[in-house]
Amino acid sequence: MKNDTSKQVTIIFKQNKFLLSGELDFFNITFIYEKSLSELKQSFPLVVFDFSGVHANNSAGLALMVEWLKYAKKHKKNISFVNLPENLLTIAKASRISQIFNQAIS
Hints:
Layout: E1 9-14, E2 17-23, H1 29-42, E3 46-56, H2 59-74, E4 78-82, H3 86-94
Parallel strand pairs: 2-3, 3-4
Antiparallel strand pairs: 1-2
Helix pairs in contact: 1-2
């Protein structure tokens, strides 16, 4: 039986902001990224990703943020990450990639 882990995480686009909730992991980040693309293509030049509803994550969340940054650079959009879980920031620092997020983290 297939385990549908996409139900453990949601992403909603509202008022030019993506609201994430649930658990980000390696099983569902592709689902979240693909779901965000349709709105990213239509959205304003500044898009906010709000992680306040994320209750669990691992380095997969960091990989997702990197993909959004790459998309933003390619499509000349500005993005901002707000309410990031502390452990996600710790992973970024430990991976020595936190500097690529400096402008995007509010």
